[in-house]
Amino acid sequence: MAAFSQAQHEAVIHEIETGLATFEHQLAYVVPAANTAASQRFVPAPVAQGFRWIAEETVAVGRAILDWFQDLLKGATAPIFMFIDSWRWMDIKGKANTAATDLTRQNLVIDDTDWSGTARDAYLTAAVAQSTAAARIGSIAANTAQNLLYCAAAGLAFYIVLAGVLAKLIAALAVSIAGMSSGIFTAPGIALFLEEAGVSTAVIVAAVSTLAAFLAAQATAMITLHGEAVDPTSFPHGAWPTTNTNRYADATVLDGDADWSLKHD
Question: What keywords appear on the UniProt entry (predicted)?
Fold first, then answer.
């Protein structure tokens, strides 16, 4: 099954949130740094104007990226809930498979010398059918748990990518601000952040596209599981197993059909 660590996921989200705070703090220094550099006496007016334009573009792009990250963080808790639900579905699998095992013919304790005949045979047939149905519930639960865990792991991988992208953006912006403040006016140095932003946004878009395709495939798998759950062919009398005991009597025929059962205390 896919690997997912709730502690790791929470650490990654904390890293992103801390990084966004640092990133937003950095953006506040871009325009002042550019204005300081542009106001130097030896800086020609056209260069100073271009300097300020680059700074304004850097802030605009940075703000857009900041908003984008905030939107992407809105689903940060989803992988955790998927992991928790996966764990619960595994519990269902265990209980269903336990019931399936208990209801197998070899595990039903029946004394053939004291009880035999049509009622006994009907009882065993009904019990085995319930065992098969419970096993199917266990299989559906296991597949559901597995798909949820895959989705949780994919979400974690996605946020790890975001954390790496954000770290690069913070580093690039720090270099750009330092370059402006130090009076290094080379265009490549000044525009480093804008270049890094272009590469990083492409990485994010690719990651989002990959995640969306994966989740779409998982959604298809979950729909298939839903189809299996509502398919009556493997369940007794074409329905999910029932605990409705009012159908049980004292080993006599009910309503003239062949549905024999035992009296339940």
Answer: Membrane, Transmembrane, Transmembrane helix
CA distances for 152 relative to 85, 239, 255, angstroms: 10, 32, 51
**Cβ-contact 55, 180 below 8 angstroms:** yes
**CA–CA gap between residue 81 and residue 6 (Å, rounded):** 10
CA 29 to chain centre: 37
The Cα 194–Cα 177 span in angstroms is 12
Q: Please give the Cα distance from 194 to 175 (Å, whole number).
A: 12
CB 70, CB 140: distance < 8 Å:
no
**How confident is the model over 78-108, as pLDDT tens digits?**
899 989 988 999 998 998 888 888 777 666 6
Contact between 33 and 180 (Cβ < 8 Å) = yes
Please name the helix (run of DSSP H) or strand (run of DSSP E) that holds residue 156, with its range, or none: helix 118-182
Question: pLDDT tier at 264 (50, 70, 90 boundaries)?
Answer: very low
Q: What band does 121 get if pLDDT is binned at 50, 70 and 90?
A: confident
For residue 257, give the 3-state DSSP assignment. Answer: coil
Q: What is the pTM of this model?
A: 0.73
